[in-house]
Amino acid sequence: MTEISVDASRVTHVAVGLSVALLTDLERMLPERSVLVLDEPDTIRARRGRERVSGFACVAGLVEAPTQDEAGAERLAALLPRPQRLRAVIPALEYGVVAAAALADAWGVPGAGVEAARTLRDKSLLRAVAGKHGIDQPEWEVVESADAIDAFRGRFGGRCVVKPANRQASLGVRLLDSGSDARAVWAQTTSADEARQRARHALPPKYLVEQRLNGPEFSVEALVRDGRAVFANITAKSVQHGDSPVELGHVAPAPLPPDVAERMVEATRQLLAATGFGTGVVHAEWILHEGRPHLVECAGRLPGDCIDLLVNLSHSCDLTQDYLRVLEGTAPRVAGGPGRAAAIRFVTAEPGVVTAVEGVDESGRAPGVVESEVYAELGATVGSVTSSWDRLGHVIATGATPEEATARAEHARDLIRVTTEAAS
């Protein structure tokens, strides 16, 4: 492999993966030409990466690099000279978590640690580590066929969850009941892809089947410094009904009794210790089953779905700024308890061709609304919601309580009308 040449004379931060959301935050925090963005050639082209970064003054350059070569992540540091003024390496996307950890280790700045990053990127490795350390979780197996799914779910009355072990955004996740066709589900899960996000040489998919647990779902967003959680927020999730459990809403803080909230944060601390996670942010997802948190999965990066903004609004903090501080090796300005609540609700529509989008301005003027946005364009063809990428917009609102914030977000979402007609 050829060494990467780039002018990094003013670079202080290296972002592994192109995230417009992260760059939007960094634009207000960092000086001009201080951020070097690394991403795969395939995904830069597929996502029009150079066009996307052109408007950010903080970006010094967008460099093609093997950021999704998780098996050979340690080789990346040999291709890219360490910027002399480097302060932090930031895992900007899920598929760049391992490469970011490897660069941080090689360049001597805080990070998750390569072993921890690899564990979080592969749900089967995470399940094995969690089981070894006595963390509550569903029964599970790695599977390679529909027959294996049927054999597993026969132990649980025909109910189970099938999912990829190393993908994101609920992609390919399916819930099965006793009457579900495992072969059809296997075909759906194994064909689910996000070609614009994945490099051609990325690790091949692996699949899990898991016991299907009952209970509400939550996530813990923890700011971690040297293995210790210095801040934690709990977010409550709203999940789509049916066989594709896509998240359609969140509210922070979660309306939980203090003892239950503490059990969930403590479970996250146990997970940090089990994985050996060093420094950064974790987004750990849990299901409250029979009164105890059971692990769903965990990411070693900032949360998606605008959850970081919900944390900022509810705690009057800046999670991304504190994220940078711990990655730079300095103390964060840890937020206190939440002073209010913030909620997001996502916009969906019936499958078909989008013929009208109405009510966005009215939604934006509704009480407590902070953001109201629709991504779908007129003439676009939309399908069923089977992953996070299929949602069409979102509304964020604040309130004095989680219940008020949720009600306001739902009211504002319902003011938006995305009309579709069946595709001819």
TrEMBL record:
Entries under Pfam families matching the protein: ATP-grasp_4, LAL_C2
Source organism, top-level taxon: Bacteria
Keywords: ATP-binding, Ligase, Nucleotide-binding
GO MF, any single term: metal ion binding
Domain ATP-grasp: 127-328
Record carries keyword Nucleotide-binding: yes
PANTHER family, alphabetized: ATP-GRASP ENZYME FSQD (PTHR43585:SF2), FUMIPYRROLE BIOSYNTHESIS PROTEIN C (PTHR43585)
UniProt-recorded name of the protein: Biotin carboxylase
Lineage of origin: Bacteria, Bacillati, Actinomycetota, Actinomycetes, Kitasatosporales
